[in-house]
Amino acid sequence: MNTVELLNDSNIENLRDLARFHNCQCNQHSKLELMKHIQAALRSRHRFVDQWKGLSGSHKRFLQHIVYDYRERFVVDDLLQRAATAAYDSGARKQASNILAEFKVRGWLFEGMSGGERQMFRMPHDLQHFYVRLLKEELASELVFASEPPEYREEKRWLMEDVRLFLVFVGERGLDLTQSGAIQKRWLQQFMRQCRVAESLQLSGFRFGYGRSHHEYPGRFALLYDFCYAQQWIVETDQRLMLSESGKQMVFAMTGPNLNEEYSQLLLHFWLRTYRRAVPNLAAVVRMIVQLCERWVVASSLIAALRLFVKPYYYDDAEQVLALRILPMMISFGLLRVASGDDTELLVQSTDERFMIR
């Protein structure tokens, strides 16, 4: 529903509250006039920018979370959880109720009931798209853009190609596992020599919270492995890794471009779910990145502009979460292409694959 429809469904007392908040000079007894002035205030670029600059970090993160979520309506408990996530301190739950109440007062969320009499909230569609555009403009002012590099790397669907290659690799030999359940290093080294993107097996830094096997393997391979395990294409048994019957079928089935695209989508959504424990608003952050990087962007400036929206996760600060966990995986999915600019600065740009995230 759009702003005018939600305003029309509101009673006149709620409209008067909105008009007072936005300092609307109009006839307080005319619903039509109230609606007209409130709508103008909500769609004022100047007013939004002023409000944005005055918001706390918690409020900004919560707004980012909901404007980049394209669902029709939000359950109140879900919004409270998101608002609590956006507030990093110990009083997060109390802050969440205050944030939600303030967004309602501002006219950014409208309360209602679903058919099952559950308390629901809506953000007007037109306002949502308007605020996405304004947020993009505000954040773009903090970015450093670059000219077209002479060459770049774009991985497109390489990750799914390596999924199939891994299934073939396991199916041909069966792999020995260590006592801890990890693939023996000699097999891992052999596979890395064959796959499209080889990763260093020298692991460092914080390794927990990003998937079942992230503590054993580098990030890209860990996601690939966890996806195959979740799909029950591989089986760990008696210190051996074997292909399941469904895994054998997938080796032959996973060929045409349409099937590759279908499983690329499944793998992308698996990544968003897996990393959500560490980055609860990951989908919103990924959508922001693909929109901000329509031109070539210096990656360090992108990280600096977005660190406000990413919560530190244990020993990973916000910059590390972006630089080590999010951007490399977006490159692996082909959502971003990558190049080296002047002074070997890393450059990124969104690709046509960005439509996978919608």
Please explain how this structure is put together.
The chain is mainly α and 358 residues long. It folds into three domains: 3-140, Arc Repressor Mutant, subunit A, CATH 1.10.10.10; 159-257, Arc Repressor Mutant, subunit A, CATH 1.10.10; 269-357, Arc Repressor Mutant, subunit A (Orthogonal Bundle). 53% of the residues lie in helices and 9% in strands. The chain has 16 helices and nine strands. The strands form three sheets. A three-stranded antiparallel β-sheet has the order 1-3-2. Helix 9 (158-173) packs across helix 12 (245-253). It is elongated. The mean pLDDT is 90.
What is the compact description of this entry?
With 358 residues, this protein is mainly alpha-helical. It contains 16 helices and nine strands.
SSE layout and pairing:
Layout: H1 3-9, H2 12-21, H3 31-42, H4 45-54, H5 57-67, E1 74-75, H6 76-86, H7 92-106, E2 110-113, E3 119-122, H8 125-140, H9 158-173, E4 175-176, H10 185-194, H11 219-230, E5 234-237, E6 240-243, H12 245-253, H13 257-274, H14 282-292, E7 297-298, H15 299-306, H16 318-332, E8 336-340, E9 346-350
